[in-house]
Task: inverse folding
């Protein structure tokens, strides 16, 4: 899979990798994708959306919605900071 991100978002992800938040860009994007899919699942389980079909192309629309992707990546960073099992005592 190949993804294309706006330059500012790509720079932010690379900076997070270089600062040690993620081991690699792949790890950062994996966590972002998991958060995205989790949010989609939560929306689908919400009483407000039960019985409603998601709009066609809703996943594909993410490529045109950089702000939402920024929020997803930011949430991934916040989640990672709360996962103390990732910290190593050296």
Result:
């Amino acid at each position: 899979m190949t993804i294309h991100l706006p330059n500012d978002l790509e720079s932010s992800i690379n900076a997070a990798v270089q600062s040690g938040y993620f081991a690699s860009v792949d790890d950062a994007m994996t966590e972002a994708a998991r958060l995205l899919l989790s949010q989609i699942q939560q929306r689908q389980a919400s009483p407000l959306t039960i019985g409603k079909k998601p709009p066609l192309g809703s996943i594909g629309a993410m490529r045109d919605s950089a702000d939402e992707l920024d929020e997803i990546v930011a949430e991934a960073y916040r989640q990672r900071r709360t996962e103390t099992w990732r910290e190593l005592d050296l």
User: Anything to note?
Assistant: The mean pLDDT is 77.
